[in-house]
Structure formats: C-alpha cells, structure tokens
Amino acid sequence: MNRHASPSLTAKAIVGGVASSQRHDSAHKHVTGQAVYIDDMPEPAGLLHAYLGLSTVPHGAILSMDLTAVRAAPGVVDVLTGHDMPAANDISPTHRHDEPVLATDKVQFLGQPIFAVIAETREQARRACKLAKVEYAEEPFVTDIRDIDRRAGKLVTPPLTLKRGDAQTAIEAAPRRLKGTMRLGGQDHFYLEGHIAMAIPGEDMDVTLYSSTQHPSEVQHMVAQVLGVPSHAVTVEIRRMGGGFGGKETQGNQFAAIAAVAAKRHGRAVKIRPDRDDDMTATGKRHDFVIDYEVGFDDEGQILGVDYFFAARAGFSADLSGAVTDRALFHCDNTYYYPAVKAQSAPLYTNTVSNTAFRGFGGPQGIVGCERVIDEVAFALGKDPLEIRKRNFYGTTDRNVTPYHQTVEDNIIHRIVAELEASADYAGRRQAIAAFNAGSPVLKRGLALTPVKFGISFTATHFNQAGALVHVYADGSVHLNHGGTEMGQGLYVKIAQVVAEEFQIDIDQVKITATTTAKVPNTSATAASSGTDLNGMAAQAAARTIRQRLTDFAAEKYQVPADQVVFLPNRVRVGNQEIAFGALTQQAYMARVQLSATGFYKTPKIHWDRDKGQGTPFYYFAYGAACAEVEIDTLTGETMVERVDILHETGRSLNKAIDIGQIEGGFIQGMGWLTTEELVWDAKGRLRTHAPSTYKIPLASDRPKIFNVTLADWPEAGEPTIHRSKAVGEPPFCLGVAVFHAISDAVASVADHRLCPRLDAPATPECVLMAVERLNREAGRPA
Amino acid sequence: MKAETQIRFLLNGAEVALSDVRPDDTLLDWLRLARALRGTKEGCAEGDCGACTVLVGRPTPQGLVCEGVNACIRFVGSLHGCHVVTIEHLRGEGGALHPVQQAMVDFHGSQCGFCTPGFVMSLYAMWMQDPDPSEAAVEKALQGNLCRCTGYEPIVKAARAISSYGTLEADFLATERASVAQRLAAIRAGGRVEVGTGKDRFVLPASVDDLAAVLEAEPTATIVAGSTDVGLWVTKFMRDIAPVVFIGHLDELRTISEHDGVLTIGAGVSYTDAFETLSARIPALGPLIDRIGGAQVRNMGTIGGNIANGSPIGDMPPPLIALGASLTLRKGGARRTIPLEDFFVAYGRQDRLPGEFVEAVHVPVPAANTQFAAWKVTKRRDEDITAVLGAFAMSLEDGKVASARIAYGGMAATPKRAKAVEAALLGQPWTLATIEAAMQAYPADYQPISDMRASAEYRMLAAKNLLKRFFLAHGGAEMPVMVTRERAA
C-alpha cells in the first residue's frame, strides 16, 4: 500500500464503484494492527490521564466527599468534581438538565461518576480513585420496574400514545381475547473498544478532542456548553471507533467533557479511558421492557384490536429514552395490520444507569412484544404461528395504515416470507421436527419464521440532514469528508464508492478522511441506520457540483456541447478525444475552476406530529425474514441453534459484501440479546454483569450450525435513495427474534403446543428450564 | 544462590533484557506503553475477549511450543526465556500480508477491526497446529476471542481458507523455529532469576527444589503459574501481589506420568498440555476441558493453579474429586499427600501451609466397570464460568449401585461431594425410581446461592437433572440426552 498505482485509462469500469463488493477500506490495517484507534495515537508530550471515581450507593445525598488521600496519591495532579465544570455541569443530550458531568449533591445510581482524578499515568489515576472517602445519606431506590406500579411510576421524559380506531371496543367485541405480560431484558453494547477521549488544549478558548463517538457534533456542543465557549472553539475528530452500536451516540459526552475541562485547566493534553468494568457500569445500555398486551381476534387468527403498554427502565435521566420508547411503539405493529390499536410508552425513572441508544433503538423491543401477541393468538387457536403471521400481514393496497397513521406503500413482506418459507422448507421441517420430538424425551426441537419491517429515518425530523465536503486536487485525486462516522459498518467505503462513481475514478483515488466538526458542521449522529442514506446523498451532491464545473469547463475549453462531455472510467471524453481525469483537473485548476464543494441533503417527505401521534416519520421501510431451528435440553435448559435461513433486502445494494456482513453480524447480536446476554442487578443496586466474564455475548460456537444468508436481489428502494439502496444497520438485528421464537416453539412441544410458553427474554438456560417446568406443571405432567 | 537480576526474552525476534520490571507489570501494558506496539488491544483486561492475544513461544523438551496467550493478564516477569510475537511481526512472503491476514481481508473478516489483531493471532496459532482445520477446530480456536460486529461467519470462513494463501513450510516463524529454540535455551540455561528488591521483587526459581527453598524463605509470596486467576487480582482488584514467584518455566512441574493406573500431573501442567493424556485416558474429561476458558486461558492456566486457588467454581476439582484424586503438597523437602476433597476447607481457605505449594495431583483412571461423566452448565456454552458442574463416577454390580462418587461445583462454597446423594444410591437398583429418590437427597448436601450466573432454584434443579442425565446416558435412554455442537451428517 506504499506506492500508489496509476489508474487504468482503458478500463471498461472503474474499480470500486457502486454495487460492487468492496472490502472494508481499513481491512488491511485491521489485520496488521495498523488501524489507529484513539488509544493508539502517538501521545502528545506531557499527556495526563483522567479516571472516574464512581458512586458506591444507588441513591442518596452526598453528605461529604473527602478527597484528601486522592489528591496526595502518587502522580495525582488534580481532582475534579462537578463544581469544577467552568460553565455548566450538564451533558443532558435532550436538554432536560437532568444529567450532570459529575454528580454533586446527590447520586442516582450505583456507579455514577462523582469525581475525576487527573494524574501522570492512567494507573496512578485509577489507583487514586479508590482512596476517596464519600459519605452518603442513602435513600430508597428502585432498580427494577417490576417492583413498581408501571402505570403510575415517575417518568424521565413525556410518554407517547399511538391510537388508531378504538382498540378497547374492538377487543371487547372480538370473538376471542386474551392478555398477558412479558419481560424483555436489556443489552450491553459490548463494543470491543471501550469509551475513550483525548483532549488537546489550543490557543484562546480552543480545544481539540479525539473522541470515540458516533456523534461528533453533539460532543462538540456538550463540551462547549460545559466549558462555556462557542462551538467554534471546540473541534471533535474521530477516524474510527472499535464498535459503537448506539453506545457511543450520547455516552461519549461525559468522557470528552472531563478530558476537555482538565486539558484547559492544565494546558496539557488529557486522555481518559475507563476500564471495561467501569465502562459497563457507568454507561447506558439497551432499555429493558415490561410489555403488557391485550388482544382481540377472531377464530381464524385475524387480529381485530390490540392494546400495548410498553414500560421501559430508563434509568436516572432522560438521555434518549423518549425517542427509544417512541420507536418501540412505532414497531409494535412489525409487519401486521391492526384494525384498531392503542399503544402507550412509559419511560420509567429507576436508580440505574441511564439507558440509551442501541442498534434498533427500541424498535426490536416493539417487534418482540408484537411477535409475542402473534404467538399468543396462535397458541389460543392451536395454529402454527406462521399462519397467524401471514394472516395479519399488511396489505399492499388496503389494510396498510400503521398505528401512527403512515400508509405503508412499499410492502414486500409477502414475497420475502413466501420465498424464505420455500427455500428453508418450513413445512417439511415442521413435520420432521414433530417426528423428532415425538421420539425424543429429553431433547426437543423448535422452529420459527419471523418477519421484520423496520422504519428508516430519525423520528426527530431535523436529524434527517447531512453534509459533505469534497476536494478534487489538481492531480485528480480526491479528498472526501462527510458527517458520518465509521464504527465498523463500512460507511466510509460505501460513501467513497458513491464519490468514485460520480467522478468515474477508481476508489483508491478517493481519500477517506476522519470525521471532524471542522470540515462538516452540525452533523447528526451516525445512527438510525441512516449513515449511508444521508451522507451518501450529501457526498454525491458535492461530487456532482464539482463534476458539473468540470463539465462546463471542458465544454467551454474544447468548444463542445456539454452533453458531449462524458465521464468514463478514469478519463473524460470531450467530443472526440479522451482526457485522463487527472489531466482535466489539472487544466481546470490552471483555468481557476473551483474544485472543492460542499454537499447537503435532507430527507424529503417526512414529518411527525408527536402530540397527535400522527405523521409520516419514515421515508421508507426495510424488510427481511429469518427462519430458525433450535434444539433444547429439557433437563438443563441448554439450547443450540441448529440452522438459520435469512432472506433480507437492502434495495439495490451499494456493496453486497458489506451488507451481508451487517446482516450476519446484526442477526447474531440480536440472537445474543434474546439468549445469553443477561444484565443482573443485585439487591444492593449493583450491576453484577459488567465484564465479559459475567456478561456473555455470542461466540463463534454460538453461530447457527447451518447459516444461510441471502440478499433478496429483486427489490429496489421505492424512493430515490442513494442509488436506490436501502439502509441495513438496524433491520437485521431484529431477525434474531426468530431464534427466540424457535426456542419458545421447542419449549411448547413439552405440552403438545397447547400452552403458550410465555418465555421471557433473554432465554437463558435457566429461563428455558423454568418455562419447561411450568409447562409440564400446567399440562399436568410429572417433571 | 547467586541469581541473574534481569529477565531476558525475545520480542518479535529481537532479544530484550529487562531489570526494571515490577512483579505485576502486564505484557499488554508493556507492549503498548513501553514499546509503543499498539496493534495489540485491550478489550477487557481479564482474559475473556482475546483482543490482546499474542503468541508466546517457549522451549520444551519436545521442542519449541508456540501458543496464543492473553497479554492483558500475562506478567512480563514470567516471560524469561520465551519468544513474544505480536501482530506487528506477522508478514507474508515478499512483503505481502501473512496468509492469515490475507484470508481475513478477502473474506471480510473485520468490521470495526478492534478485535481483529487478536483474531489474527489466535488463527495463526491454530493454523500452525492445524493447517486444514475443521469448522469445529476453528470454533475451538476462537473460544477466547469476542467479535461484536461480524457474527463470526466470515472469520470462520477465512480460518478454513488460510492454507490456500500460503504454506506452513514457508511461514516465517516455522523457518525460524530451530534458531529461536536455541536462543531461548541459551537464555534459560542460567539459574535462578531475581528481579527487584525487598518486597517488590519476583523470582523465577532454577528448579523445583529451588522453588521449595524460595518459598520457605518467603512463605507469603504469591505463586504464579499461568496467571489466569492472579492476573485479575492485579488488573481488576488492583491487589498488591508482591513478592511473586513464577513457576510456569519449571519443566519439572510440567510433566504427566502414569503408574499403576494413576496419572500424576505436575502442578504446572496447563490445560492444553493435559488435554491429550486426560482425554485419551479419561474420555469424559476431553469435552469438559474444551469448555474451560478459551484457548489462550487453557494455554496459560494450570490444573494445579485451578486447585491451589480453591475457587468454588473451578472446573477441574469436581471431576477430580469424583475420580478420587489426591494431592501432593510440598514444603521444603517435606511432602504430604491428601485426598483432593480434603484440601478445600472453606470458601477461600485451603489446607495449604505457609511456604507450602501444590506439587502434583494424582488422578486414578476409572476402572473398566466404572461409569464416569462430568458436565458443566453455563449461560453460554463456551468460555463461560460454571453455574453448575456435576461429576459422577459410579459402578454397578448385579444391576445395583456398587460405588458412587459424586461431586459438584457451583453448589457450595467449595467443590463438594454429594454424600447424601451417594448414600441414597448405594446398593439400590439402577432404575429411574432410584434416581428420583436420590434427587430428593440433594438439599441435604447443598444449599446453593443465587447470583448473576444462576438462581439457587435453577442450580438445585439443574444439579438434580444432571444425575438424571447420567442415568439416561448410561443405560436409561436410547436417544441422545444432551445438546451438542456436532453437526448432523
């Protein structure tokens, strides 16, 4: 990679255009250890290290904080408390003023940062933290929303209600009705690179931050707010994260703010990196839910009315809990039409870390609640759940209005599911499994096919904008920058493909550069699966501006009509002659043509009135389905995923290799959420699962034994998205639901599928065994 | 005894001599901070995620052994006479990527890339042992590596294709093997190594006799074999472990022998080194050992250390107790041998005197008429800490239970025999009714606790059901009675 190859001037196609399976742009650096993460950067001379001191009680007033021994510890340069924040001790991302950088008068969860030690080495800072003497007046606390009245509990942010029709009347009038409750666990992001920030003080008010964040602009705004300086004084840069998954959308603010404050206090660079245990204890996770549901349906399994109550453990502050619980409601329909529906959210205050964004952003929780209702209906009628699913699918011309009154215009779920049902041989395996189970007293198999429809756009409409900056240098090489961040999802390479395509140059002529607030301002978080959709369009717009200037220049210089200027691979045909791209840009430069441009994009069509619960919050939907087969051990509850078949669509894919990687990875992450990943708080309010030794994400040996992933190659985005591709970040996470339902199906077999297992999630061996026991009891069988 | 005052080892082929090493300096911090080799990452600092995986080559009587280890919990002091190979050292022929690296690139095996150097090193270690690995072999090699992005599918595909990118014969480490072994042997030819002064020092004894002498003089020293447990005392609890005596380099403690049907396993034998013998002689132990930690932990962790530290959830003590194992403890020149089950006195307390150390464990191979099984139940199948582990050794005569030794982990404050259950079985006919009656005896043996791994209720139920599984697996059922990772043909 040292010498740059000259582009071919006779190629029929460029290397690395859109719709080609490009490798991740950093793959060769990943495998050689040369990819630089923030902790790997060369350190400025005099670098100091910060470490967080955490509260040791879950709720109470801080009576006194004796930091004498901390200050006296070897290497300690400074100790910061909330009172040392120069302008504001506030990093609440939704501006509710409910989240301090460092808690001052009271603590609201065990593990809340209350001071920060600044020392010559990280080891010294970390050891010194243990020397603090803090007195608390402890107060009653609640960690689990099952322990409180969920309909009357304190909320951290206003709830949402979606209504269409009169759900209660419809349920009461239905031939059949049932109600139930489900508990659905949370999830730690477990990005392999934990949170980290490094601040380098500059002149005047300036500070530059390297922050492992999905949302550099928010880090910029928060740091500016804490320091009391204009945004222009704060520059935030991030080349790559070692994973984000939503965990670095708002949660990086705290670390960046502390590093920045310390850096400005001491005029020295400051780095902060918590240990994994502290990272998991002190930063937010996926919201766990308790979902109450009531459904009315007919004898064929058609749902007539449904009522949901989605209560979530929000933690001590709002963070993004409002938007997350909103999105749970937006997905309580999944792929199904409800003639009448009411759905309410309750983002409940608890004395736990403030929960936050996580891939799917509440959507998966909505889908899990919805699919439970489908299962209930199926068991009540003694039908295969897949039959009930298909019976309730949204129509394509009618029965197509969502609980939020948006009409579903791009529904392709019928075909997706039909194709998967056939390719996975659902019917044949259903029979084979029944035969297996009949002859197998201990081991039981289960099968499930679950669909996904996922709404694409930020539901906060103003986030649906993006900017890009493209420079073409005189030699024809291109510098690309945009507001999206790279966390492994392959955003950078996809956007580079888009730009290479516009200029018709090989992708290695396009330099991918770190995201920085100094080049593209006011960016949105790289979140909501929108990174490519938004930034791709912005980069395309910038590139098109420059291409148009080059076209106009060439047309004028060579005296040909503009339509005779054609961009061919690595060259431009102008009239009858072909000019190397780099030669044309050189000529343009000499002629004083501006070869730099910004691009901007805002998603059209969308609007959302939260007070009314009505609008068109999503630009389009992404669809997919998964079919899972599992085996369970009815003596121990251990499970094994035997086979999974996935059919998923990403429109006209920009990069199939990257998209398949997102689907496989998303699926496994979703499966982990619903199986082995369990968060446990003890009676003292301590999170007991705060490291990989106690918190179990899937391993290679948890993959399905047979794993078939197929991209549906026939759909394209109905809307004019970037090259008619579709978002792929979050939707496949929801495919993991199939494994959960397959486990449920296997459990159900112990009572001949007459009782709904009502499995809670995650379906750990304990959860599965206890469900087996309960079904045996309820079916009147000896254990 | 005159001692060397510096440790010497090879780092990526170049010799390093250090005299300013603290006993608890970790290899990972040393690589990243002192050497600015930042390709090796910290993901968890507890040996569970594998992002810090490096190779450590060590000379053995059988030649140079090159293994993946967790640099985060490996102490620098233990590396005397070893060869540390990091991701920066990997290279293919003629400046190309190494075959492992190229396969990972071509199969899209990285997304965020942070875990990737660790995966590359684990796969490299696997490939050197097994250039044509089965899917199961790859999964085993990757038990100690977490990836949150890819879902592993492309990594497994890459792993199986490595040999299509290059041969082992041409591999740079393979070609250096003999010369590296020679250089390491020369380093190890010296006697005792002592680095540091006063309490803040560590010792690498010259021999087991020397170890005995060192411990007699310094009875409170922390003995460190594989550091898979002690490493966390440092990285997680910030405990002061000095002075430290490292024993992993003592070949005398790394031997396995068999006399009169009893295996004698030296206290320094790693799980990896024990695997071949134990799984051959006591087949039920093979799958159990395969589920202890990941490859990196099994390469470092020792059976002796697992016993000596007395964890209630150590995976080897219950099966060894069920097998009737005994333990030789040594203090100075004096040795005593006790039944293993008597070693565990109470939570965190073992029958080990100051200055005494575990020298060997003696494991009787079950007689032909003895049925033996050991099963571990965990939240996640691999690389998880036991919720419940049951081990059963039983013989039948005339359809009745003639002998029964049952022990559990995770059910009490120590690994513990199920004596009431055994009594309920002895002399009874081998029937489901007998098993169900014996299941009633469990509360007399165990009152398990609830924690993040499992509830007390689940532990009790699963423990009882493992006895039922044992019955079904040994004559009580025709059908398979446990889920396996093996693929149907």
TrEMBL record, chain A:
Keywords: 2Fe-2S, Iron, Iron-sulfur, Metal-binding, Molybdenum, Oxidoreductase
Cofactor (UniProt): Mo-molybdopterin cytosine dinucleotide; FAD; Mo-molybdopterin; [2Fe-2S] cluster
Record-annotated Aldehyde oxidase/xanthine dehydrogenase a/b hammerhead domain positions: 32-140
Membership in a protein family: Belongs to the xanthine dehydrogenase family.
A Pfam match: Ald_Xan_dh_C
PANTHER family, sorted: ALDEHYDE OXIDASE 1-RELATED (PTHR11908:SF132), XANTHINE DEHYDROGENASE (PTHR11908)
Record's protein name: Xanthine dehydrogenase molybdopterin binding subunit
Molecular functions per Gene Ontology: 2 iron, 2 sulfur cluster binding; iron ion binding; molybdenum ion binding; xanthine dehydrogenase activity
Signal peptide start and end residues: none
Coiled coil start-end: none
Its EC number(s): 1.17.1.4
Taxonomy, superkingdom: Bacteria
Gene3D superfamilies: Aldehyde oxidase/xanthine dehydrogenase, a/b hammerhead (3.90.1170.50), Aldehyde oxidase/xanthine dehydrogenase, molybdopterin binding domain (3.30.365.10)
InterPro entries assigned: Ald_Oxase/Xan_DH_a/b (IPR000674), Ald_Oxase/Xan_DH_a/b_sf (IPR036856), Ald_Oxase/xanthine_DH-like (IPR016208), AldOxase/xan_DH_MoCoBD1 (IPR008274), AldOxase/xan_DH_MoCoBD2 (IPR046867), AldOxase/xan_DH_Mopterin-bd_sf (IPR037165), Xanthine_DH_Mopterin-bd_su (IPR014309)
SUPFAM superfamilies named among the record's database cross-references: CO dehydrogenase molybdoprotein N-domain-like (SSF54665), Molybdenum cofactor-binding domain (SSF56003)
Enzyme class per UniProt: oxidoreductase
TrEMBL record, chain B:
Domain FAD-binding PCMH-type per the UniProt entry, residue ranges: 195-368
Keyword vocabulary terms for this entry: FAD, Flavoprotein, Iron, Metal-binding, Oxidoreductase
Keyword Iron carried by entry: yes
Entries under InterPro entries matching the protein: 2Fe-2S-bd, 2Fe-2S-bd_dom_sf, 2Fe-2S_ferredoxin-like_sf, 2Fe-2S_ferredoxin-type, 2Fe2S_fd_BS, Ald_Oxase/xanthine_DH-like, Beta-grasp_dom_sf, CO_DH_flav_C
Keyword Methyltransferase: no
Domain 2Fe-2S ferredoxin-type span(s) in chain numbering: 5-90
Domain of life: Bacteria
Enzyme Commission numbers on file: 1.17.1.4
Gene Ontology molecular function: any one: iron ion binding
Pfam family, any one: Fer2_2
PANTHER family, sorted: XANTHINE DEHYDROGENASE
Protein name: Xanthine dehydrogenase small subunit
Organism: Aquibium carbonis
Organism phylogeny: Bacteria, Pseudomonadati, Pseudomonadota, Alphaproteobacteria, Hyphomicrobiales
Gene name of the record: xdhA
